[in-house]
Amino acid sequence: MTKPIDVALIGGGIMSATLGAIIKQLEPSWTIQIFETLSEPARESSNAWNNAGTGHSALCELNYTPQLEDGTIETAKAITINEQFQVSRQFWSFLVSEGLLPDPSAFINPVPHMSFVWGEDNVEYLRKRYEALKGHPLFNTMEFSDDPRVIHEWAPLLMPGRAKSQPIAATRVVQGTDVDFGALTRYLLDYLVAGGAAINTEERVTSLKRTREGLWKIRTRHEVGRAPEYYTARFVFVGAGGHALPLLQKSGIPEIKGFAGFPISGQFLRTDNPDIVARHDAKVYGKAAVGAPPMSVPHLDTRVVDGEKSLMFGPYAGFSPKFLKRGSWGDLFSTIRPHNLLPMIQVGLSNFDLVKYLVGELLAGRNKRLAALREYYPDADGDDWYLITAGQRVQVIKKDAEGKGVLQFGTEVIAAQDGSIAGLLGASPGASTAVPIMLQLLERCFPDRADAWQPKIKAMVPSYGKRLSDNKANTTRTLNRTAKALQLA
Fold first, then answer.
1. Is residue 488 in a domain?
2. Does the first or last residue of the chain, that is N or C, have fewer Cβ atoms within 10 Å of its Cβ?
3. Number of domains in the chain
4. pLDDT of 379-417, one tens digit each?
């Protein structure tokens, strides 16, 4: 019998690549094998044009700072997400300093993060948000302005053609970034392969079964003309994006019961016109429409992919039953089970605004899409922009504390009680927080090794085990150190 694989990673995206890179540092002798359905890794949700590449750090994403009924701004989620992104930056900085990742400009570049709103109520909200965040060590470089001349200096495309009487406001953090998670994934996988890991492309995992010995039997099917193959693994991570849910269901672990998925598709307008691109250097986020999911917050983004800059605006959300961009039309229906049917119905009944929004987006034509773009870039010429289709996002449906189905806009780690298998469901903020999510997964699945691993983890992520922002001086040092290592300063 072939010796079992120590770690099987299903899916060749940023989550699997991150987990593999961390494990390679902690346990260099462990064997790692990656299974990817497509001909190349990082072609689905991790692909640069299938995600917004913001480097989610809550500097500009207004959905992370809701206004409460008493008028105050809730900042806890924004601070948590920024903390998580700083953990990812520390790990990337470590790999760069060790020579294990290439020139960081190949995957991360400085791009200011801005929030932009109009209307008196929204201006007042943004002012309150700024006041609530500006004293925090992770947000203390944030600037606020309601002066059109200043905002024009920050982002020239936003102002020409706008009514002078319109109340507007913006915040800016110059230290924001654009991240090409597709490139980062490929570099992490290159590091793994150089260290002995194997990548099986065009090989789809079709079943996962626990053996009597407590191992996992993995059945795969080659996409082109070969018989099924079988592998055994001591530990399995299902990082297959939207396909994670059906695979975890096939594993039979009780922890997956009650979970379902709601797929949301997206499209963006993109321009590569160098004259337009040269006039906008920022990621400008606004406020979501009523009923819109957080992933549909409109934004006008500078993107840096393969060293070339472009602009994209969107997303325009829609619905498809596929769980992956290259998935099957039957994906949604194949995951319906008796244990998740009621939560799905409850979510459908309680999210009428979302359903209404998605129907409106599906019916929207090019003129409506351009009208949305012109709310941010009033002088936009439709001839400069073309439509691209982004990746699928499968939002988590789960039971709340009262047993009712709820739609969760975030990520969820599902792990067997014995820690032998785990998977990740959900979407945003996703890739930006891959490192802390994978560290938490390791703590959960390998509790007996946690103490032994701590010194190495702290060498890779010095803030591990504590909140970075609890110490202002330490926060500043860490931000400066990672900025220097990643060539962002």
1. no
2. N
3. 1
4. 999 999 999 988 888 888 898 888 888 888 778 899 999
